[in-house]
Amino acid sequence: MRIGVVRETRGDERRVAATPETVRKLRDKGHEVLVERGAGVASSIMDADYAAAGASLVDGDGAWQAELVLKVQRPLPRGEGHEAERLAPGAMVLSFVYPGDDPELNRILAEKKATVLAMEAVPRISRAQSMDALSAMANIAGYRAVLEAANLFPRYLPLLMTAAGRIPPAQVLVVGAGVAGLSAIATAKRLGAVVKAFDTRPAVKDQVKSVGGEFLQLELDAGAEDKGGYAKAATAEQTEKIKKLLHETGVQSDIIITTALVGGKTAPRLIEAETVLGMKPGSVVVDLAVEGGGNCALTERGAAVQHNGVWVLGYTNLAGRMPFDASRLYARTVLTLLNHMHGKEGFKLDLADEITGPVVLMHQGQARVDGMKGGNADG
After folding, report:
1. Catalytic amino acids?
2. Could you read off the pLDDT of 101-157 as tens digits, one per residue?
3. Is 135 among the domain residues?
4. How far apart are the first and last CA of the chain?
5. Predicted local confidence at residue 333, as pLDDT
6. H or E, element range at 63
7. Domain containing 333 — which CATH number?
8. DSSP state letters, 98-149
9. What is the pLDDT of residue 262?
10. How many domains does the chain have?
11. Distance between CA 47 and CA 151 in Å, rounded?
């Protein structure tokens, strides 16, 4: 099979969907790999590295005309057209997709009779852990969030005893103890901060403690976790209790990192303006839920803003700010998923498989999930 690796065009995207390591392994499987020239430059991967791994360097059209196109972000509008128009008829495209908010993309893919593989749809089961791109990227985002906060925070994070006097440790609050939250807790703790964390799922208490955080306990009704292990949306009454706790803790914190997202829904607003304005000047809030609308009332998407001397960071795609390692991990999850789909007779999509089935959002132009519907060629 001819596999194309294309350059990303989204403004804040520096990752690439394949690395020389994964290109070499795809070649070992008998695939021909076509890499768009310059596709890895933003990730510090040079064309010569891909060529040494056995890839063929081509222009953009050459990579887009492959049987399978690998990306990080879904195809995007470009100029007066759309990247998806560059796909060959009947081709497959693999990337993060997040269907439902780009009807034009869905229409073009349907007309192309395309097959769409979504990395965010990899099921959260033991067999698929090594293909879980979301978790791999969330781990990086949590780590980077602490570095971004520390960069703006005008004090040390650790406790310091010096000849000139004692400097107390920074107080960090992490909201949400999923993969990104746990990564943020561990990173802040390693840097010497005192870390507290909140999550609606009591089951994560031990995980928070294992990475050095203090778990903030709040008695809520049972059922805060879905069958996949993700947090469920809180009721209005629960949300008010959560906001009260986070306000009381937040105004005493130097850094707040929020990571609370509920799949397919707008991110819950948990940090109100009064909390931010009650923090000490020089404090920092990093809102990792900005792609879903944000957890903080004062977050501005893609920007760093100050309110009463408190920084609020709404940077998108924090994993993309560490593009070399993020590309390396993303590319490995892609390779593992492709290997899962590669049988003795070659590459095959088994739609009944518990991993492959959920990942295929569109098959030969026919939508298989609600978010892709409305774009079917036959309506």
Report:
1. 124, 129, 132, 135, 230
2. 788 999 999 999 999 999 999 999 999 999 999 999 999 999 999 999 999 999 999
3. no
4. 30
5. 98
6. helix 60-64
7. 3.40.50.720
8. -TTS-HHHHHHHHHTT-EEEEGGG---SGGGGGG-HHHHHHHHHHHHHHHHH
9. 79
10. 2
11. 32
